[in-house]
Specification:
CATH class: Mainly Beta
CATH architecture: 3-layer Sandwich
Strand order of the largest sheet: 1-10-9-4-3-2
Number of strands: 10
Shape: globular
CATH topology: Rieske Iron-sulfur Protein
Number of domains: 1
Strand content: over 45%
Structural class: mainly beta
Radius of gyration: 13 Å
Helix content: under 10%
Largest sheet: 6 strands, antiparallel
Order of helices and strands: EEEEEEEEEE
Number of helices: 0
CATH superfamily: Rieske [2Fe-2S] iron-sulphur domain
């Protein structure tokens, strides 16, 4: 079970592998991605220059920033290659008709 404050986000059904939703939650923009059946949640902001990640190409467990081409790991938020810290990630769990997102960044 996730700790901290959580919020429900409705997802289109079905929300299968490869699907992406941009959610606006309490002033945050969070990208929700189904990666091979596992939900991931990441801040919708490229760590390089703040560009939106929405519309980026999914490559395995990563997303390519549509503005500058950086690869960002959807699980850790780290840049690839190099593994430098990057985008905020959030704990997420499936829920009936959507997902529950912990609003505190993962790892805090």
């Amino acid at each position: 079970m996730m700790a901290g404050r959580q919020v429900f986000v409705e997802l289109p059904q079905p929300f299968g592998p490869g699907k992406v939703k941009l959610a606006f939650v309490e002033g945050l923009q969070i990208l929700i991605v189904n990666v091979d059946g596992t939900l991931r949640a990441i801040a919708n902001s490229c760590p390089h220059a703040g560009a939106s990640l929405y519309g980026g190409k999914l490559i395995g467990t990563k997303i390519r920033c549509p503005s500058h081409g950086l690869l960002i790991d959807l699980e850790t938020g780290c840049l690839s290659p190099g593994g430098a810290a990057g985008a905020q990630t959030y704990a997420i769990e499936e829920a009936q008709g959507g997902a529950m997102i912990a609003l505190e960044p993962a790892g805090d």
